[in-house]
Structures are given as C-alpha cells and as structure tokens.
C-alpha cells in the first residue's frame, strides 16, 4: 500500500531520509522505535496498512536479531525493494553508530561515560505516550475475537510473572493456530508444523589475545541467534568477552550497555562501543557489521514469505497468535517502563501533555521526543 505513485528513486530517497531521522531521534528501545515507525509509515505516509505492519512485526518476532532494526529493514524492502532494504537498515544503524563511536572515544580518552540523566528524564514520559497510542491502534487490528484477546492477555500476565518472552510468542502462536483450525486437527499432525530453530555455535572459547577475525565471528554469532531484550544481549556479551576471553571487565561491559541504552537507534550499537574499546575505529566498524549483518539476511529471506503466510490457514493462525502475543509483551514492557518514567508530578504532566499533542493535534513523534529532551534539560537547569 503506497501513498503516491512515485518512482523507485523517489521511494528510495523517502526511505533513506525517514530512517536517517529515526537513527538520530528514536530513543527508548525497540518498543518505542516500533511505535514511532507505525506513526510514520502507517498513519502519516501510509506505506503499509495496520494489518501489514502487524504481520511484519509478527515475522520480526519469529526471527533472531534486533526487532526494531529488522522492522526498519522490512519497511524499506516493502517501500523500495532490495535497495530500500539496504538503505533503511543502513540509515537506521549508521547515525547511532557514529554517535556511539564518539562516546567511545570520549570514554577511552577521559575514562568516564557522559551523563544523560536530563535527557532520559524528559524523553521517557513522552515515549510512554507514543507507545500507548501505538498499542491502542495495534490492538484494534490484532484482536480479532475472544481467542486472540485471551492469548494477548495471557502473554501479558505470564510475562509479568517471569515467563520467557520467546516461549510466550511461540506458545500463543501455536494456541491461536490450533484454535482457529480445530476442524483440521484430525487431519494434521501438529508436531511437523513448526521446526525448532537451529543455533549457530562457535568452538569453545578460552582466554587469548585480541583478534579482529574472532571478534567479528563472535558478534556475527550473537546477531544470528539472539532473541530478547538488551538484558539478554548483556548475558551473551558477558559470557564471551568477560568470562571466556577476558577482553573486557564487568564495568566496561556495563558502561557499553548503558551507552547503547541512552543513545538513539538500536541497542545493538553496544557492539560498536565494545569494538572501539578493543581495537579502535576499525574494530568498531567490524563489530557493528558482524552483529547487524544476520538481520539483513533474515529479513531478505523472510519478507517475501509473509504474503504466503496469510494465504495458509495454519500459518495465518500462527501469525495472528504471535502478533497479539507481541502486543501483550509490549504492554507489559510499557507498564515496567512507565513505573520508571513517571517519577514525579513534572514527568506525569509531561506525559499527559505529550499524549494530548499526539492524539488531539497529531504532532510528529520526532518533535515530541525532541521537546521531551528540551523539557528535561530545562527542568534540570531550573533545579
């Protein structure tokens, strides 16, 4: 679904400019990024409709890698083909990569991480308002009846109870698929419908001198197998770089994760920071390539299959279940983020003002985020 019959070069320019902007302004983590993408490509530009966006989101949740980056790559492919796939991913990754490299240089030169408390103080409440609007829009499309509503509510409750998010996605997908195809169950064997995902493994690692090829392979492995949040990324990085190889200290790793969280764009730019610490700019670029390369490959393989999934009653049920489970997980994460974001009357008022500007005046989410950052800075200076 496109807004206008512009040529390929025009669509490629649109894709590049949009995701460059997102790379500079998309704070708040994958859930917030996806909400901002929806505002831009569904509501404003109408590149895809709500159902298509949800299907892309569901497909993204079924493959490893950084969800928001893969959504950017999917949307670039839908809008401008193979060139759009590359342009969207690169445009979303490159601005934060250079921002993180600059912060890594400061860290190596001065031995400290820059403070970003004022920035997050003002941005977080605005991000919650953006996510809530997206959840409402998604819910009206994804919840197709009592079965999907129950699956989404179950995913939300079980995630808050501590159940693994990947298990919930697949469990809800299979449950909705089975529920929508009860009349076919007598003729089908569910055991053969979903194949387990394989894992990419490397030989056992032991402490050794730093090497660019080995660093690249480790980040390539992580990008190819990692599901879940930045906290899961932390576990992977610590196991390889701190415990097995001894290339980083725990404090350096925590600082790297913090930089990935407070800068715009994908959290996986943590790899850029680590690469710079280990081997300067060449290692930073190679680490970034390694951790993001699998996402381009996974999207290139999976995107053409999504329309076919909608034509299969089994796959359609699975995708509906994954979609609504993803919304349940987004709602749970929003609840957790909200508790950390609304910490005083100022942040509550800021969130309400952002919601009003978004719902009543349809203000672009980029301006809302920048306004939140400015408000956070002004509040900090006032104190």
Your description of this structure?
This protein is an all-alpha fold and 383 residues long. The chain has two domains: 8-196 and 299-382, no CATH class; 212-298, no CATH class. It is 76% helix and 0% strand. Helix 6 (146-161) crosses helix 13. The radius of gyration is 21 Å and the shape is globular. Residues 190-202 have low confidence and may be disordered.
Helices and strands in order:
Layout: H1 8-25, H2 30-44, H3 50-62, H4 67-110, H5 117-142, H6 146-161, H7 165-180, H8 212-225, H9 230-244, H10 250-262, H11 270-302, H12 306-311, H13 313-341, H14 345-359, H15 365-382
Helix pairs in contact: 1-4, 2-4, 2-5, 3-4, 3-13, 4-11, 5-13, 5-14, 5-15, 6-7, 6-13, 7-13, 8-11, 9-10, 10-11, 14-15
What's the short story on this structure?
This protein is an all-alpha fold and 383 residues long. It has helices at residues 8-25, 30-44, 50-62, 67-110, 117-142, 146-161, 165-180, 212-225, 230-244, 250-262, 270-302, 306-311, 313-341, 345-359, 365-382.
Keywords summarizing the entry:
383 residues, mainly alpha, 2 domains, 15 helices, 0% strand, globular
């Amino acid at each position: 679904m496109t807004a206008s019959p512009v040529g390929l070069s025009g669509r490629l320019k649109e894709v590049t400019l949009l995701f460059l902007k997102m790379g500079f302004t998309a704070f708040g983590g994958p859930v917030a990024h996806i909400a901002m993408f929806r505002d831009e490509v569904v509501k404003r530009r109408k590149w895809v409709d709500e159902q298509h966006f949800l299907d892309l989101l569901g497909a993204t949740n079924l493959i490893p890698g950084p969800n928001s980056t893969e959504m950017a790559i999917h949307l670039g492919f839908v809008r401008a083909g193979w060139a759009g796939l590359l342009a969207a991913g690169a445009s979303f990754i490159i601005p934060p990569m250079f921002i993180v490299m600059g912060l890594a240089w400061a860290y190596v030169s001065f031995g400290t991480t820059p403070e970003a408390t004022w920035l997050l103080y003002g941005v977080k409440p605005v991000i919650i308002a953006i996510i809530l609007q997206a959840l409402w829009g998604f819910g009206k499309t994804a919840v197709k009846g009592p079965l999907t509503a129950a699956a989404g509510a179950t995913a939300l409750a079980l995630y808050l109870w501590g159940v693994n998010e990947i298990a919930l996605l697949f469990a809800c997908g299979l449950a909705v698929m089975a529920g929508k195809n009860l009349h076919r169950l007598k003729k089908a064997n569910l055991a053969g419908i979903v194949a387990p995902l394989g894992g990419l493994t490397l030989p056992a690692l032991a402490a050794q001198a730093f090497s660019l090829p080995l660093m690249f392979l480790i980040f390539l492995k992580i990008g190819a197998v990692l599901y879940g949040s930045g906290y899961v990324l932390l576990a992977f990085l610590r196991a390889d770089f701190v415990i097995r190889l001894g290339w980083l200290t725990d404090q350096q790793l925590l600082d790297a994760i913090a930089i990935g969280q407070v800068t715009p764009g994908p959290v996986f730019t943590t790899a850029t920071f680590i690469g710079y610490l280990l081997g300067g700019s060449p290692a930073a670029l190679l680490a970034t390539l390694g951790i993001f390369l699998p996402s381009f490959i996974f999207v290139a393989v999976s995107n053409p299959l999504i329309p076919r999934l909608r034509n299969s009653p089994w796959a359609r049920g699975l995708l509906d279940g994954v979609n609504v489970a993803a919304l349940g997980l987004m709602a749970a994460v929003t609840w957790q983020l909200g508790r950390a974001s609304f910490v005083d009357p100022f942040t509550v008022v800021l969130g309400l003002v952002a919601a009003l500007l978004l719902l009543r005046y349809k203000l672009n989410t980029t301006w809302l985020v920048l306004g939140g950052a400015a408000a956070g800075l002004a509040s900090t200076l006032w104190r």
